[in-house]
Amino acid sequence: MIIQPSEKAITEAAARLRAGELVAFPTETVYGLGADATNESAARKIFEIKGRPATNPLIVHVDSIERLLRYVDLSRSKNPKLLEQRLVALRPAWPGPLSVIVPKSSAITSAVSAGGDTVALRIPNHPVALQLLRACGLPIAAPSANPSMYVSPTTAQHVLDGLGSSVAYILDGGPCQVGIESTVLSLIDETPRILRPGAVTASDLQKLLGCSVEEWAPLTGDERETLLSPGLLEKHYSPRTPVVLRTNITPLTKLPPKVGCILFADHAAPCAAVTIKIISDTGDLAEIAAQLFAALRELDHAGLDLIVIDTCEPIGLGAAIMDRLIRASASTRSTEK
Ligand code: TXA
Ligand code: MG
Description:
Elements: E1 2-3, H1 7-18, E2 23-25, E3 32-36, H2 40-50, E4 59-61, H3 65-70, H4 80-89, E5 98-103, E6 118-122, H5 127-136, E7 140-141, H6 156-163, E8 170-171, E9 183-186, E10 193-196, H7 202-209, H8 223-227, E11 243-245, E12 259-263, E13 275-278, H9 285-300, E14 306-309, H10 317-336
Helix pairs in contact: 1-5
């Protein structure tokens, strides 16, 4: 059920979380499917409902840096002092779309970390998420609230469409402002490493940390080369309709009858299309990120044979957008081979 986030509704949602039940809630990136991260059976329900492999760990959400530090086991870090310094240096990025991988404190159930001794932590920047976290006083494990492998939800209705009655309580916080999932940054080794690009970019992180950060980079260098190696790409964020990137369409490409296009600016489509969706008039990356998943879902429900999507420079937020696009189109390319 979709619920408006009144004070009473937040109190009710917090009580449900404390009782080991699941609650879907908005964040600035995408909607999350939340459970008490200290409760093993609650965390297991997330994997069941999403059809998520138990080997894929979850992100834990907290409401403050003080609480975040509570779930880091500094004593198990190779360099506890440096890790603590780095977490403090990242303070200006929170609340915000950044998750850090750190040694896990024993308070977090190993169901959340998929049996591993590290955990992903973040402070989401959404008033409803922060109110909920404060009201329940718990660390909340929450992956994106969609069936595993499908496009992440950016509205409460998307959550309902994907997970239906298996989630009893969906707090509605409106459309997500960022629209793609948080940057995942590993602080386990000496050189911090981006495991998933997001709205907090490598250059943002380098500035905050004052050290070099290993970028996530299948797209650096020749983009085409990467596109020719779909075996390296994990299929993810995928609509059921096949997806092809605009850059892979040539005048010789044979196209099916019903093609839909998602464009990043008000320019000509690369091919004849029955539906055209322009998600930014000016190629604005923040706007593209905010609209992308809703557009993919909309065209996925339009009875098309193929979705063609524009591409952007894989720089800054563009790297995160291209990561999601390449994954969404990965299965199409591998079946073409
Ligand atoms: O923006 C987001 O991060 C959203 C909202 C709800 O906060 N959550 C989200 O969660 O995208 P999920 O589960 O869909 O993605 C979590 C990512 C996965 O790629 C997972 O493998 C990685 O974080 N991850 C989680 N814990 C990890 C760990 N201990 N080590 C390495 N990767 C980890
Ligand atoms: Mg996800």
